[in-house]
Amino acid sequence: MTTQPSRPKRRQDIEIALVCALPIEYDAICLSLDKIWDDDDHGSQAHSGGGEHQNKYTTGVVGRHNVVLALSSGTGKLAMNSLTSDLTARFVGIKLLVLAGICAGVPSAENDMLLGDVVISRTLVQYDFGKHVPGGFDSTVSVNENPHPSVRAMVVAFQTERERDRLVDRATEYLEEIQARAGSKRRRVDYSRPPAATDRLFSAAYLHRHRGADLVCGCTEANVCTSAVTPTCDELGCDTTQLMRRPRLDRVVAGEEPAELDVFVGRFGSGDAVVRSGEYRDRMVREHGVVAIEMEGAGPWDGAPCVVVKGVCDFADSHKSKRWQRYAAATSAAVTKAILQGWVGGGGGGEENNSGLGEPGGLPAVPWLAKTPGAVYNTGNMFAHNTYNGDNVFNFSK
């Protein structure tokens, strides 16, 4: 059984930050916490930012870890960059920052993705980085590998089928836990999975718009008017023959496969603008190889050791709606908790921590797990490693 840590006496004793941009993301993470220290009678360790940026901080426990949960004062990478700077100045011991919440998914033949699935960042591309020039916008795409060895090793492990399956199994348990806790609250919020029939991916060129011979709005073959954004596809009469064939969804609808979350590891596209265009989304796939799109990841990416863990709530097209947002926020929170259950804090002093190793010789050694520069340290399991300078280790076996 996991031993719950004692309440931290100092802010610098907290090594893990969970960061969200939206209140619904924050609420889902709160439901995943095993304890919230702010609820204790002897005071609160939540610290709010001052001045222009009012960020909310909440301290609590996930498994054997004390964590700080931070809610940004706004969306987008600038707001998240501001939050990260304030957070790491207040909590100077942070060794892992998890950006959790919701995102748009980019399904493909390689990634048969459903709404509610979770994407973990391997790399990140700033697709709106560049300059305005005569004749248009000159995109200077910035593709960033994760600069932190401990996070890179963890993400590499999640690219293996075995470890990803173990992660999904744990996350499924935590999702049920979150849903049960939500049902017992005073304000009951439904985090259940919406019907599979509402998981719709239309042809990229097929718009969510008004149709008919007597239109008086701004809808055209190439544009969607603002009043067409809110109605559902059923209300607008979107043509279901334009739906894309998705083998995994077909199996779920037919009852041949359970409607369960899955986890994908890949490249996030990060930018400040909301994407509501299937054609633009598909262009990002062709040009940048993204599997998900979000708005905040570029903010903290080059600062604290960061991993983006977000649930898919739409497909970045004109048919997007908010119906899947709460469930996607809950799946993100569940996967985040599953990740943290395997994260082992830095031991300091270069002491090796080999507890819970997998089978000897199971996975090959990788250079960034080296104890000394240029050396190779084969743990037998990428989830259990250490670096000589006391960087964090990850051990999913416990």
UniProtKB/TrEMBL annotation:
Residue span(s) of domain Nucleoside phosphorylase: 16-148
GO biological process terms on file: nucleoside metabolic process
Family annotation (InterPro entries): NLR-like, Nucleoside_phosphorylase_d, Nucleoside_phosphorylase_sf
Molecular function per GO: catalytic activity
Name of the protein: Nucleoside phosphorylase domain-containing protein
Organism: Pyricularia oryzae (strain 70-15 / ATCC MYA-4617 / FGSC 8958)
